[in-house]
Amino acid sequence: MQILFQSSSESPLPGLGVIPSTIHRFDDTDKSVPHIGWNSADLLHSRQETTPYYYFVHSYCAKYDPENDPQAAIWAHTTTQYGKEVFISSVSRGNVFGTQFHPEKSGAAGLTLLNEWLRNPIVNRDPPRPVSQPVKPKHMLTRRIIACMDVRANDEGDLVVTKGDQYDVREKTVTTSKTTITTRTAGAVRNLGKPVALAARYYASGADELCLLNITSFRHSPLRDQPMLAVVRAAAECVFVPLTIGGGIKDTVDPDGTKRSALEVAGAYFRAGADKVSIGSEAVYAVERLRGTGKVEGTSAIETIAQAYGRQAVVVSIDPRRVYVDPETYDGQYRDELVKGSPDGPENERGRAWWYQCTVSGGRESRLVSVVELAQGVETLGAGEILLNSIDRDGTGLGFDLNLLRLVRRSVRIPVVASSGAGKKEHFVDVFTRTNVEAALAAGIFHREEVLISEVKEALETAHVNIRG
Ligand code: 1PR
After folding, report:
1. In the CATH scheme, what is the homologous superfamily, with its name and number, of domain 2-124?
2. Which of 28, 173, 200, 391 has the smallest set of CB atoms within 10 Å of its CB?
3. For the segment 155-172, what is each residue's pLDDT rounded down to a tens digit?
4. Is the CB of 422 under 6 A from ligand 1?
């Protein structure tokens, strides 16, 4: 839609100029930017009271300002509010349609819209008179529920969805289920299902977004890892909500010596149907370099991908682990980031203090970078969103690490996704009512069907958290 406009503060290149107006960046003083998630689109020339939710992911927008910019306003078909800003979320005139949101990623509502456009491609109406659209007390951006699938090859070479406790994905004991025919063998990769079938199930059950992490990709070249690309392609054919793909997004050398840049790797995933890529270990190394030189060099995976595809397409997945210290005597460099276990928290945390250290290679190696340093560093480099795991809480079912989430949420302006530790639906209510994170992700409880996405959404609705129903 933005290319129809005259110009944009995002780029010195002109647009097509069909709409004689300019695109501006969102103001990030009162809200996270990019604007990522499901928001309502209000039809301007209709009395329809309920508006569908569509999926948005952008940092720039066309402001809806009929008084000062009537030329743009007469193109507006719907408007959307983010923070206190009202912007044009779709344009329509003659046979020209454009949306700021992604109908192809907006579930059933988006597919209905595309169908209507294809059936009635031309709207012959006179340019309407722009109507004012008062700013509402609060925007309708929903909190997102994300289902995450850790994918890896099992010992037979098949890609399976797996899940570990604190990232150990191998079975610890031999068990034979009495009710099903599954036998679990000690040492085998835990197999929780096939990635595409699970993705389709989560889409059908109302997940707002899906995440697929190739968790062993650090061992080899992801571009040689054609099964993972095939999984993404097949998932994108049956899942019409956003897909984030992670694992191995970095510069690599194929076994035959061919060099592949992180940008090429990400490009292959985007072409296969990914909407965002998630960068783990490489983000830590990039921030270490940034801290060493103090210079933004433009060469890291975060920067090159954000430059080519926009920062909203770049998620950084952080894997922090607690480092317990004695708060009375600790005089290290992370004093200001110390967190204390709350009296009503899990027993092994009460009265203890710690800071959060970042890790690489799926938690196998710790680096001397704190979670706050990493979060702020990747924001500087151009990341558009943070996926915040917690190695200490992963797979425990104890609930999200609210202290960690608050610490990171107040350190950056980009959206933060809470991850690790969800054990029951109430944990989602806690994370959205007691922190300001934009989304919450879970793996184990969804894979084992201990809690359904519909149950999480019902609990959130009852707690008056705005969600896409
Ligand atoms: O370093 O760019 O190749 O990215 C690797 C990615 O793979 C990172 O995002 C890293 O978190 C992930 N990863 C690597 N090893 C593992 C493993 O399990 N052995 N998975 C792994 C980490 C953590 C979450 C999990 C939540 C929610 N998985 O993704 O889904 O903790 O779990 P829960 O709801 O069951 O508690 P790179």
Report:
1. Class I glutamine amidotransferase (GATase) domain (3.40.50.880)
2. 173
3. 777 888 988 777 777 777
4. yes
